[in-house]
Amino acid sequence: MNSLLYPYKAPDFADRVTAWYEGLCPMTKVLGRLPRTAHAEWLAQQVMAELAQEPIYHFEGKMYGVLVVATPAGELFYLKAFSGLLRGNKTVAGWVPMIDGGDRLLLEEQEILAQLRDIRHRIAHLEQLPERRTYQQLTETWQSKIAHFNQQRRKSKQQREQQRRALTQTLAGEPLNIAFQKLTEMSRQESNHKRDLKRQRDQELRELSELITRSDAELQGLRQRRKTLSRNLQKRMHRVYQLKNFAGNAQAIADIFPQGLPTGTGDCCAPKLLHYAAKHHLKPLALAEFWWGKDTDIKQTGHFYPACVERCQPILGFLLSGLENKSFNTLVGTPEIPLEIIYEDDEILVVNKPHGLLTIPGRSSHNYDSVFSRLKRDFPQIYLVHRLDQDTSGLVVFAKSTPAQKQLQHQFRRQQISKIYTAILEQPIHQEEGLIELPLWSDPRDRPRQKVDFERGKISKTKFTKIAQNRIELQPITGRTHQLRVHCAHQEGLQNPILGDRLYGHHNKQNHGRLHLHATAITFKHPTTKKIITLRKNPLF
Questions:
Q1: What pTM value is reported for the model?
Q2: DSSP state string for 351-364
């Protein structure tokens, strides 16, 4: 029995797809997909429990993965893998090894990694030299001393000007000239003193300045050396790493992607698991990747994550090539309704988001499906500009480049983008129009609800216009979370919740399942052409 294959007995709860791992094959241009499922996540949690028993795993944050596979005879097993190094090793008993070819460079890689560690330590030493702090403190002291002198000199200059005006009223001829010469000599002495101060400063700082200049030059060389070593090692590794897919093809990463890929490509757990399965004629059924160990700004222990965009997604398409996806149909459920694209050009894309679908993936593995993740399949370069609540339908703008994203987000921050929402309220509305100003605060003990709070809340403004008995148009002046929903429901707002609002509504029989709030229109300046664009999509309710 293969020592890396762990027996898998399906748990007693129903399986379902919670997310997708996918990538476009660069050779066939076919999108390969593999689900993350509830059963795969359950297996991953068993692995988490094992990791939790060893304190050493808590200090080294990294991605881990579990792959459910079937043998040709139909037996179910699972494999497990880690990204990069585990306790300083690329190969650890019980875990899927590195991709074929990586062992050819083990010695060379270890030597280069040792050099990189030495460089990293030297860089840290040079960046934290105590002389840098001393130099900064002395520089600030001298700046303060010279600034104080300049202030005193300005006062002395004003006093001399007053003395000159007074002398012209009381003296004349030679006595006046002698008095003026004395004042001029005082000015000259002050100039000399300032020059002496600067000379003393330069002498005191010269040795430290020269040391820091030499250190900065060494730092620049070390950083370039580090970059060159990493790049050359990665090029070598990409030439020897041989990826095998389910179509039976084996290719070096460098041959599949001659334009190059980031450092670490091929060392992530998902590619290792899929390569191993293809090599040993195992059919992958589901994959689950999670983070374990030291938390980062974007990853937390025990959370599931999709394949990384930079390293994994580019090669997942090749690895999944040849894999028959029909077996996943029973897990998919209702066919996915295509997104309606309202507008598209080279810089922007506007989608009519259906209610119930997230704008971007949520943290929970059950909330991965989103407008953004779906767009990523057809538009690899797509960038978020703003978002709508999951229960809200309507127009959402995405950018196709980072400059366009930044420009549009700048317009949002400056409140230069106008949006109109359509809503149906629970009860008829009597006011024809108006402005609601209620500050909103997010109570950390009661999330995701927002509260009106005149002390801690942020300024929030909404214009409204009645268009039918209980149908209104809402124009947010600010863009706070749940702003429209709270302004409609609150007793100091319209005191009339939006129909279907599960958080702020009355939960009566009229709530019909969905939130009746739709982003109907949006007006903004095109990030490239600078033309004003207005788009509108009326709601179906």
A1: 0.47
A2: EEEPTT-BSS--SS
